[in-house]
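Reading is simple: each integer encodes one residue's backbone shape. The lines below illustrate:
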Amino acid sequence: QVQLVESGGGLVQAGASLRLSCAASGRTFGTFSNPDIAWFRQTPGKERDFVAAIHWKSAQTYYADSMQGRFTISRDVAKNTVYLQMNNLKPEDTAGYYCAAADRGQGTQVTVSS
């Protein structure tokens, strides 16, 4: 069973930067068959929003449109840790930030014809 521990948050002024860490213990991300590790954020009374994700094996990254350009997700395989570098922070970035890891399924194709 894997446990995820987030760290790196704090109180900063607008325009500052923070780097969040998501460390796994009990099991390495590499032992998942095909994992994605994602960051989400949530403020009280609001829905949890997707921030960014990284495919552990390929390092391919994905971002919410509003985070693109200011936030960077990365991984350190040796440290079994995923990072979220947040630059030029804005007051609207205020939230609790959480990471999650899950194996990809095989996927199912959706095709919409006109």
Remarks:
- The CA atoms of residues 83 and 94 lie 18 Å apart.
- The first strand starts at residue 3 and ends at 7.
